[in-house]
Each structure stands twice: as structure tokens, then as C-alpha cells.
Design a protein that fits this description.
The protein has 416 residues and is an alpha/beta fold. The chain has ten helices and 18 strands. Bound molecules: flavin-adenine dinucleotide. Its EC number is 1.5.3.24.
């Protein structure tokens, strides 16, 4: 079924009785050409592009919970491509370009909203760093504008410009950045993959990886053994536990990140804003809630919830940046588990084990990567060679010393 204005009118006239489920609920088959572990954004987009771009349709996505129960449905919905380094910039820019055409491509309203992303700076040194980043972006053909204090004030008069310790001196602005409705992305990719023959299997937990003569031949699950040609791991915060099933020791730590939403307010914040003196970021959803978050909880955990100390810290940062926030009520908070790589950049690569492929290391920024991650991982699975924009995102870079140190803080996960 194709979604369109015509289909909405037709359904309305028939009392909305003819809508069909967006995807099937298939039983697992005994064998697939490709099995993808993890029905998050990355697993589902990989399946979608495998079928659509490479014609590989004998594919299953195995999800231990329900579609959207992981980070794809828990993030703060921000998309951008304001990266500095060669290893990241073309990759994230491909992702932004795919976001720009995604709704037409998979025929689903994902509410892609290019409302602009502003990174505030608070010192001369930080302005220099942002100027360098902006120049790097422009040299890669990516949009970036360095704004002074008065230009930012005209756009966002409610910010605290004269804070004694962290005055706002200006911002690096990417007009094409913005937000996307996160769960609609999961649903849109699941529906698109399903339409092309992919089996999206919910409540199917992978509990073991079977190998014969060193090659992966399938997975043990709570619904029995399922054989496969290639096995693709896209388990995000659970990467280390799934990797351990194949004795893979990965350069990943799992940490909690929380997010918050306020009561619905009249439109007030038009863009996405990030606070350069901390890690606070905020936008306003179309329903009116202020959606925001800040730092990790700073301890390893697989629990999808965090602690009160981080709640307090996040709200302090928010009120420092926007004093009026102190009058809004927080409605809900939640947490997700982040696959933190040691240099802050992702991995899309083969593993040393035959037939086993890896997609992980998304830290707190993998939502924006969803389309390019799926596209490049599908390319790798189909052709057995990396897509050129993902050629630096290799697993062995940690061994070889070729870190992609995007945040300028070295290969130390506690600093990025
Ligand atoms: C609070 C928060 C805010 C964030 N904000 C942003 C943001 O604004 N912008 C941005 O770009 N990124 C953001 N992120 C990061 C982003 O959400 C993640 O990097 C990205 O979603 C991870 O990829 P995914 O969607 O595939 O993960 P997930 O949705 O977590 O998918 C992984 C799936 O694997 C499944 N799984 C795990 N183990 C197994 C198993 N053994 N068997 C079967 N299935 C299994 C899980 O159930 C899960 O559904 C945020 C994350 C959080 C938590």
C-alpha cells in the first residue's frame, strides 16, 4: 500500500477500515543469505538498502524487543553533518543528503525538519576551533556559517548572553541540520524493507553465534537456530554482549545517556541549540515539548535508565543557557545505552571472523548517521568492500594507531 493524500481520502471515505499493517509478522525461515542482529535504525536501514540498492532480499532483521525499543526511539532526534575530519565529514554529509530525500524514497512521513543547528561558543579559543571546523566543512562542500554575538542574539534573544563565566560570543550554524521524528524512521525503514521481501522478526533474541571451521553459519535464538550466509551485527548498546558470542573483544564501552521532554509550550525555540560550555542541547518538538539532554552518566551500564545526579546537572546547564527554562515543567526522562568507541567515531567493517560483519561505535550521535550507516553497511555486505565514504571507519584503526579523533580529545572515551 502506497501512502499519499489520495490514500488518506480513500481511507477516510471507507471509515478507515482498509489500512493494512505496515509490515508482516513472519516466522523465521531456516536460512537467510544475510541476518542482521538488531532492529534499530541501523539494522533496519541496512536491510532496506540491501534490498533496494543491491537486490539482496533473502534477509532477516532479528530484534529482541519491538521495533523502535532501542536508541532509535530514544534519541533527541538531531541530525547534522558538522564534522571536521576526513574520516567522518563525507560520511555524515552523505547521511544528511539521504535524509533530505528520505521521505519520498521510502514513502513515509518522518517529519524531516531542517530547522538549523547552532553550536554556541564562549571564548576566543573556542571561536577559533569552530572557525576551523566551519572552514573544514565548507571545504567539503557542507554549509556552515560563523555568527557573531549580535547575529545569534537576533535569532535567539532568550539565551543568557552575559553569563559571568560563560558569556555567549557567537555560534557556528549549520542551516541544513535539524530534527527528524525518530520512531517514524524505524517504522519507515521497517515498512520499506518488508515491502521488498525482508523478514522483520520482532521478539527474537540472538543468544549465540554458531561457527563451523572458523566461519559463522548462523545464530541461536529464543526461537531456535537460524542459519545464514553473512551475519551483520547492528546491536548498538549491546554490541559488546553480542560480540562476545563470537569471542570478539571490541574497543567499545556501553554507557547510559538520558534525555528529557518538558510540558508542551507555545513555539519558542525555532532551531537546535547546543551549549559550548557544556554538552547541553535542546530543540522544540512539533507538539511543543522542549526536548533536551546533556552528558553521559559516566559509568558503564546496560540499563536503559540513568541517575538523578545527571538529571540535576542537565537542568543546571539548561538554565544557565536559557534562564526561562526554570519555569518549564519536565514531563518525562528516559535513558538509552550507548556503544561508545574509544575515539568517538563509528566502525563499519568486516571482522577477523569469516562471514561476520560489524556496525557499531555510534556513541551519542548515531541517529543522524542512520541512512548512511545502512547504505554503507549494505554496500559492504553486498560487495565485500567498504563504501568510499566509510573507508576510514575500520575496526583495526585502533591497533594501527589511525584514530578518528573527531572531538580533539584523543582516544579517551571519558573525554568525548
Ligand atoms: C538519550 C539519547 C539521545 C540521543 N540523541 C541523539 C541525537 O540527537 N542525534 C543523534 O544523531 N544520535 C543521538 N543518539 C544516539 C543514537 O540514538 C544511536 O547512536 C543510534 O540510534 C544507534 O543505532 P540504532 O538505531 O541501530 O540503535 P538501537 O535502536 O539501539 O538498535 C539496536 C537494537 O539491537 C537490539 N538487540 C540488541 N541485542 C540483541 C540481541 N542479542 N538479539 C536481537 N536484538 C538485539 C536492541 O534491542 C535494539 O533494538 C542519542 C541516544 C540516546 C540514548
Amino acid at each position: 500500500m502506497r501512502y499519499s493524500a489520495y490514500s488518506i481520502i480513500k481511507q477516510a471515505l471507507s471509515g478507515n477500515r482498509l489500512w493494512q499493517p505496515a509490515w508482516r509478522e513472519p516466522e523465521p525461515k531456516p536460512h537467510y543469505d544475510v541476518i542482521i542482529v538488531g532492529g534499530g535504525g541501523h539494522g533496519l536501514s541496512t536491510a532496506y538498502y540491501l534490498a533496494k540498492e543491491f537486490g539482496i532480499t533473502n534477509v532477516a532483521v532479528l530484534e529482541k524487543g519491538y521495533i523502535g525499543s532501542g536508541n532509535v526511539g530514544r534519541n533527541t532526534t538531531i541530525i547534522r553533518s558538522n564534522y571536521l575530519l576526513e574520516g567522518n565529514n563525507p560520511f555524515y554529509e552523505l547521511s544528511l543528503q539521504l535524509w533530505e530525500g528520505l521521505e519520498q524514497d521510502f514513502n513515509y512521513n518522518a517529519m524531516v525538519s531542517q530547522r538549523g543547528v547552532m553550536n554556541l561558543f564562549h571564548s576566543d579559543g573556542q571561536r577559533d576551533a569552530y572557525a576551523r571546523r566551519g572552514n573544514g566543512m565548507r571545504m567539503h562542500g557542507v554549509d556552515a556559517e560563523l555568527l557573531d554575538r549580535e547575529q545569534v542574539r537576533r535569532m535567539m534573544p532568550y539565551l543568557n548572553f552575559d553569563h559571568a563565566r560563560f558569556p555567549i560570543l557567537g555560534g557556528l550554524y549549520q542551516p541544513r541540520g535539524g530534527t527528524v521524528r525518530h520512531d517514524a524512521v524505524a517504522w519507515g525503514y521497517a515498512r520499506g524493507a518488508n515491502q521488498r521481501g525482508v523478514d522483520v522478526i520482532q521478539h527474537c533474541e540472538v543468544t549465540g553465534i554458531r561457527r563451523e571451521n572458523g566461519r559463522v553459519v548462523g545464530v541461536e535464538t529464543n526461537r531456535g537456530f537460524i542459519g545464514c550466509g553473512k551475519l551483520a551485527l547492528a546491536a548498538a548498546g549491546n554490541t559488546t554482549t553480542v560480540g562476545r558470542m563470537a569471542d570478539l573483544d571490541l574497543p567499545i564501552e556501553t554507557h547510559v545517556l538520558q534525555a528529557f521532554v518538558s510540558e508542551g509550550l507555545k513555539p519558542a525555540i525555532d532551531n537546535v541549540i547546543t551549549y559550548g560550555a557544556g554538552h547541553f542541547y535542546i530543540s522544540q518538538s512539533d507538539k511543543g515539548g522542549l526536548v533536551f539532554g546533556a552528558e553521559l552518566d559516566f559509568y558503564s551500564s546496560y540499563a536503559q535508565r540513568g541517575n538523578l545526579q545527571t538529571v540535576e546537572h542537565t537542568l543546571e546547564e539548561g538554565v544557565t543557557m536559557i534562564p526561562g527554562l526554570s519555569r518549564a515543567k519536565v514531563l518525562r526522562a528516559w535513558g538509552g545505552v550507548m556503544d561508545m568507541s574509544m575515539d568517538g567515531s563509528p566502525i563499519i567493517d568486516r571482522t577477523p571472523i569469516d562471514n561476520l560483519y560489524l556496525n557499531c561505535g555510534w556513541c551519542y550521535g548515531g541517529f543522524k548517521a542512520t541512512p548512511a550507516s545502512g547504505f554503507c553497511f549494505a554496500h559492504l555486505l553486498a560487495k565485500d568492500e567498504p563504501h568510499h565514504v566509510a573507508r576510514f571507519l575500520r575496526l583495526d584503526r585502533f591497533e594501527r594507531g589511525y584514530m578518528i579523533d573527531e572531538s580533539g580529545k584523543g582516544p579517551q572515551p571519558n573525554l568525548h
